[in-house]
Amino acid sequence: SLGTEMILGAFLAGAVLSLLGVSGDEDTRPGLEAIGFGFFIPLFFITVGIRFDFGALARNPAAALLVPGLLAAALAVKILPALFLRLSFTWRETFGAGILLSARLSLIIAASGIGLRLGLIDPAANAAVIVVAAVTSTLAPIGFGFLAPRAPGRKQSPIILFGTGDLSLQVARELAGRGETPVMLGPLAEAWAKDVDPRSWAARFDPRHVRSFMALSPSDDENLLAGREAVSAGVPHVIAAVNNPSRLPEYLAAGVRPVVHGVAQAALLALIAENPVFVGQLMAGHAAFQVQEHVLENPALAGRPLKDVALGPDLLLLSISREGEMLIPHGNTVLQAGDQLTLLGSGPALESIATRLSGTDR
pTM of the entire structure? Predict the structure, then answer.
């Protein structure tokens, strides 16, 4: 009706859908993206490749000379503005970003196709534009990878154990059997490092990213002091063993989660009595199934009932911790951002759900 080109019309249709979106249309965008990126966009580029007339470029020397000129312009119009990044980044990062931004593909090819159909450019110029798009899209990421420093790999949040007794060593060995590498504090750390892995406490660990801090010393005074320091440093989960139950109020006042040996042992034995098969798998250090806790950070999953989130056959959601309240999940439980999910499952299944919950699978 508007008389626009098909490509521009498709863009305007998407903009209208975005502007007129109402509650309940949350599934529309993922569906359109799946169809677009999985079907129509590949067909578009296949069509562009079929229609690419390299002979027209070879027959027109002037158009052939247009290619290096367009390449230079493509780099200049991105690298020059990127120089402002030098205010916050190194020269290598700045030039790397400019080169990466110079990659052109869909937009420039679509614009060139529209110009060709409207008679604004000839087939030779259209071929030159496609060559530039292909060259920049291929070489720009390579240039960026050469210039920009390697991003550090995503490190797993550490578990820190404080203590000088056998309990710390037993917990550390149990964690190691489950694929973890705990960081040991105290005189026991040196012996543990020689036995398993040379790790020690260092300032490189951001307390806010520590998964949990456990004070397992035989001394309540040491556990309380270490736990209080961990809380003040910003560690989100601080747990301490309590030998004298009368000191529980001190731990709670310090923001430390206390675990009383006798009570914890009795509770665990009662759990085993009620659920011998389930707990038996949990107690096997190298069992196929493990229990992990993950925080829901993916906005695509927030606000959705659990029954609509396919966990898979190898996963079981045991509980949800939300704002200090423990929820027993069921199919109609609506997930919220920041929920801490306790999951039981196989190693690969837990790795997959961790990626989905963090939103890094896109």
Answer: 0.41
